[in-house]
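Researcher: Go.
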Amino acid sequence: MRLAREFFDRPAHQVAPDLLGRVLVHGPVALRITETEAYGVPGEDPASHTYRGRTARNAVMFGPPGHLYVYFTYGMHFCANLTCLPEGVGSGVLLRAGEVISGAEPALARRTAGGARVVKHVDLARGPARLAVALGFGREHNGLDACGPGPLAVLPETPETPETPETPETPEIREGSGIGELAVLEGEPVASSSIRSGPRTGVSSGRETPWRFWIDADPTVSPHRPHVPRRR
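Model: Structure:
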C-alpha cells in the first residue's frame, strides 16, 4: 500500500528517518530506502534549496507534500527529493541510498550505460546520484506525485541474473494500471534502535545539523563526505 500524503505533511527531519525501510518504486525498479537527508524551511536551513525563497528551480518544493523534486547538480548528476510540509512552505527529504529489490536488470543497464565499469548489486543505488540513475529519474520527472491513486504490490520472484551474480533473489512489481508510476510503499519501517543520524553530507552551510539518517550497518549506505571548499 502507498504511503498517504499525510505521511509527508510533517517536518522533513521527522519524515526522513520514517522513510527508512520503505519501498520506492518507479517503473520496473523498486528499492528499499536505506539512507535519507532532511532539509528544512526557507530562512531557517541554509543548506536547503529553499533557504532564499521560491525560484523556478525549486518551485516543486513549495508545492503539496509527497511530490518528487529532481534537480541537476555539479553539471553532471540528478538527485531526487520527496517534498514535505503543506503547500507553500518549501521543505524536503533527499533520497541518499537504497537497496534495489526489484528490477535489477534495468537498474544495472542504466548504471553501466556508456561503457561504465561493472557495478556490484550493493552499489546500484548507493549514493543520491546513483539512486537517481538506477530509478531512471531525470528532469522530466520533476513534480511527479508519489501519493497518487492505485495500489502497488511487491511480490517475491525471479532468480539472480547472469550479468549480476551477486544479486540476491529479487521480487517483481505486479500491478495493472499503476506500473510505471512513482510510489512510496509502506515496506517494513525500521526500528528506532537501528537508525543512526549524523551531519549532512557535502553541504557548506548548516553542515553540523544531524539530519542525515541511515540504517545501521546496512551495506548500501553511502560513505559520509564532509564538504570540501572548491579551489579556484
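Model: The domain at 5-215 is CATH 3.10.300.10 (3-methyladenine DNA Glycosylase; Chain A).
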